[in-house]
Amino acid sequence: MAAAARTLRIGLIPGDGIGREVIPAGRRVLESLPSSLNLKFSFVDLDAGYDTFQRTGTALPDKTVETLKKECDGALFGAVSSPSTKVAGYSSPIVALRKKLDLYANVRPVKTTVGSSNGNPIDLVIVRENTEDLYVKEETTRETPEGKVAEAIKRISERASSRISTIAGEIALRRQKIRAAAPGTSTRTEPMVTITHKSNVLSQTDGLFRETARRALAAEKFSSVAVEEQIVDSMVYKLFRQPEYYDVIVAPNLYGDILSDGAAALVGSLGLVPSANVGDGFAIGEPCHGSAPDIEGKGIANPIATLRSVALMLEFLGEEKAAAKIYTAVDANLDEAKFLSPDMGGKATTQQVLDDVLKRL
Ligand SMILES: NC(=O)C1=CN([C@@H]2O[C@H](COP(=O)(O)OP(=O)(O)OC[C@H]3O[C@@H](n4cnc5c(N)ncnc54)[C@H](O)[C@@H]3O)[C@@H](O)[C@H]2O)C=CC1
Ligand SMILES: O=C(O)CCCC(=O)C(=O)O
User: What range(s) does the Isopropylmalate dehydrogenase-like domain occupy (predicted)?
Assistant: First the structure.
């Protein structure tokens, strides 16, 4: 008798702007996976974002958080339009969601299929701490005789630094295993984690991150992993000069956010780079990009970052085979370069890119 299909319930949170254009593409890909995978999906639509805030007075309704916690196996998040000026009562829902669900790792693979800006292949992962640093958002402003002074807390804890470094080491080992199983696909000989910090200036906060990361990665299970460190400003320089050198980069929250957008430029577009917000037993796939108001409503947003985020979510939910199908279909779309969206120099719409990927599934 055939084994019963596994059913995964997925929360869909499109958010604002192009989030609403790319999340439906992510759903279509899940619905179109071959039946031989024995996987079924059910979906629940959930609200969050600036539009939700304007309609309801809250950017992240309790119902969204409770439904994710009680009903869902995983989720997809599009993007939100957080204003650059303070709006009373508004706070970024994705930053809050990461904390509320304790999704402590933000895993952001950056990979070329055809070649990078310097012609060499890039295949690295940025593993970004996802719950603290300046993103605790404890800010104050006070009046002084010289004018206003604003301050923000940068919180770094041993616990969060240790667990993010451990997951970075585990990802490095997993990547090495995948490379070993496919000889000839990479010239990298050993797994490597690069710790990024600014502890030459911030000796206590980034100093704690650096020391804790060193200690976590010195564990016996990581004895085959090369551990290096790089101060974040020269990390940017080296990343742009020699991106092919890097394997896994572990970073506190803000540096990880900035480095991943920079790395996206190296592989051609923010519209290509996925992420997964990962905790123990739960993952939210989320493209690295924002709500892109400059192209919103034009139907030309690149859906590939989202499709890869779907695959990444599936990987963390233990469905590697299904993830591999999506990666292969997306890579084939990029390799053939017939249906590319405008950010990639093509003319295809979101729908045309999606249709091409679906055809390959
Ligand atoms: N996780 C989230 O929800 C995030 C939300 N944001 C929010 O997004 C809004 C806009 O932020 P920006 O700084 O403009 O960053 P952005 O990532 O939205 O856009 C930067 C540039 O990349 C392009 N781009 C982004 N995604 C693309 C895609 N899929 N296809 C083609 N081109 C794409 C945009 O058109 C724009 O030119 C802000 O309100 C910001 O707060 C920004 C980053 C993450
Ligand atoms: O705009 C927002 O609300 C979130 C911005 C934060 C961010 O860029 C990220 O964490 O990926």
Answer: 9-357
If one residue of 261, 275, 291, 298 were mutated to test the ligand 1 pocket, choosing by the most ligand atoms within 8 A of its CB, it would be 291
Number of domains present in the structure of the chain? 2
Q: Which residues contact 148 (CB under 8 A, 6 or more apart)?
A: 141, 142
Task: Report whether residue 94 contacts ligand 2, using a CB cutoff of 6 Å.
Answer: yes
290 alpha carbon to ligand 1 midpoint, in Å?
A: 3
Model pTM? 0.96
For 91, the token pair is: 């706070």
Ligand 2 centroid – CA 186 distance (Å): 32
* Cβ neighbours of 188 (radius 10 Å): 15
Structure-token pair, residue 37: 């995978």
Instruction: Answer yes or no: do 247 and 283 share one domain.
Output: no
- Is residue 133 domain-resident? no
ipTM of the complex model: 0.98
Ligand 2 atom with minimal separation from the 275 CA: 11
Q: Is residue 107 part of a domain?
A: yes
128, part of any domain: no
72 Cβ below 6 A of ligand 2: no
Contact 260, 136 (CB under 8 A): no
| Mean pLDDT per 10-residue interval, the chain, length 361 residues | 86 98 98 95 98 98 98 98 96 97 98 67 96 97 98 98 98 95 84 98 98 98 98 97 96 98 94 97 97 98 98 96 96 95 97 98 92
Residue whose Cα lies nearest atom 4 of ligand 2: it is 92
Radius of gyration in angstroms for the set of CA atoms belonging to the chain, rounded to a whole number: 20
Which ligand 2 atom sits nearest the alpha carbon of residue 286?
11
- Residue 248's nearest CA partner among 43, 358, 108, 134 is 108
Q: Which of 207, 233, 266 is the last residue of a domain?
A: 266
Nearest ligand 1 atom, CA 305 = 29
